[in-house]
Records
---
Amino acid sequence: MNDKYLQSVSMYRRLSSPLGCLVRTGILLATMSTALLAEGGAVWITRPPGPLRPQDKRLAIPETEFFEIVASRLVNAESDLQKVGAVPISEAKARSYTGEYYRCANGKRPYLVRAVYGSAGTGSFMVVKNDGGLWVVHGSVSAVVTYSKTALVVNLDFEPTAAFATVFFYQ
């Protein structure tokens, strides 16, 4: 008998044992959890209609007008954004979502807006006006495609008719 055959028989016996069954179950659960996490953010991805031109600076919302929520408030934000892509909120609520650094200029109103990012700790957000709606774009630097939910507080001087969220990956 050759060595590869003996190795495969040995591996089969190990995986067939009670401990092997736990290993197989752990691998399956880890695979399922990874798939669910990857899908979690994907459900918020919505592509705006028409041509995609996030580089058009005339339509960009200045970075000083949007703030990412703190991670500890994600569950609350998901609840608020369960059925809609953007919802108006009070300045007090905006501050509770983002932290004490939040500011809103006179004549603008804070909106909580769905956002999706690709790879944590890389890339950045851009918010663009899109035919009366709002388009949140995240550019991620990663070879691995994952999608995670977050939300932004965006100060606007108009009421968005729709909200869209997409992710671009750069390698």
---
Amino acid sequence: MLPYVDIVAAGAAVLLAVLGLTAKGLPPSRRVIMAVLTVIAVGGPGVSHWMSEHKTAAAAAERDRTREHLGFFIAQGEQLKTEIEAETDQSDVYGRIDDWAKRTESFLNTLGPSFVVRFRSDAGMDGLMLVGAHGRRGSYWKGLRNRLTRLNEFSDQFAK
């Protein structure tokens, strides 16, 4: 539905056009110009309103797609975190974490370079470590946990 102001403006344009078109002594070329201006005045607000709503819907759909992608990377990262928390042989988990981080950064780069910078940053993160995990395992777990925290922050950001 068009806002009240648009309806009033369109009504006024139609009224002026009717008065102008029915006025005696108005040359035909002026009547054509008056008719064209009336069509523009009446249709303009409707077209503008439609375009605005279309852009809003497209932006919402894009946010939803972005959140879906982020959710996909979060789910993969959580699975990797579960694997590294297990005290089993983890010979290939480190390479898969590195691949996950590269794929995630590639996607984040489509959102803008600042997302990659924030994804890599540990600023504001606590120093929590996995109990009993030292060296490479502890370092990978902490990095993965921090990256997942960032992805969840990004997801929240796109929910608005």
---
Amino acid sequence: MPTSRRNAAAALLLSPAGTWALAPFIRLAPRRAFRLGSSPSPADRPGPLEHGEAYPDLEFVNYEEGEGVEWGDGDDLFPRMGSDADTDREVEEMRETQRVQNDVFQFNTYHQKFLEGREWRGEWTVYRTSTFMEGFEDVVDENGAPRLMRSDPLRAISTGTKIVTDASLPDYGGAHIRHSECYVPDPSDDETDSDTAPGEEPAPFWPAELDVYGFRGPQGNMFVGPAYTLCDADLVTGRTAPEGRVPHAMLGEVHAGPFSALRPEVGIADGDVRMRVKLDYRVMPDEGARPHPQLRLASLTVCREADGRWPGAEDRCFTGEAGARGGLHDPPPLGGAEQEAQYMMLELEGFATCLFPHTIDQDPEAHDGRGWVATLDWAPGDMRYQADRKFVGGAGLKGLRSLELTEIQSKNAEQYKPQKGPQDMFRV
């Protein structure tokens, strides 16, 4: 991570990130590098054993064929949905009770693990795409992806507070989390950037008030272990999202697009250090009238942060070599060749790599309705983590299919790298 605030190369001044390096452009990792990394090619891998070969003394029943298996109708144990209205209502009430329990767990644990008593001080590096830079809109690499231009490091402070407005409501219904982020001046910088005024707040990547009901799939917020993801989005002109809690069955419709902007972030915290990637997608001005306009990456912000202190040169988790060793530990599936071509990968100082789409289709028929993924792979110390934000395609872009986390000891990561190729942990 650069420690100087100034770049001697040719520069362009843009608000709000100050000085931007235009020469040379940031070089991306080869697109195919994240597919297999240093793993053996498919032809070199041994085929998986069938169950019968692996365990010859056991008898295996194929339940998909249904032969020799008497299921019965089960009505004497579990009445089926649709059998009568009262039963349906009771089943839905039980499901909602379970959802609320998960809501409370996600809400409280996210606040406790990532925000409570913490003041994250960080150096942020912003990468602007050529797509939205005047005079550089047509600048692309050999794969057709936009070129990235990196800013000097910016200092920022990030906090979050749980606010209780009505303690009488059950299940924390009267509480919400309010995030706060602002740029601060660097005391070692002799010059003052008017484009990064102290106290200026970056664009939000979360709901203004993240309440206990905000951790269900369609809203796009979730945590698992040391990883989390948040999301905010702007609906196309003329549409507004209703305020307050809505029934679970309506969440997908309420949080559906099309969107004029989409802002997801993926973060990993390890002790008192944290790395985040913020992705800012927008609709090109000339596409706003289309029913399903494409979202294109405008900027990517990499946040390297420490709790209660500023990161320094001694933090190898931020200043170490660029890129996750051996490429992504567990490459996610990206769809067909056409959809895969809409991804790009960036190797980051501090033993990290991120993978993300530079163009997202909002047409529900595009790529057979397949969703998208944004990945952060980071080895801050003894452990290596990979977080995959897998989100829905079409109108449900804001919503999550899953947040998947891979954890492994850094020293064992290459030895135990997955050999089956890109796969989903969960299928929907």
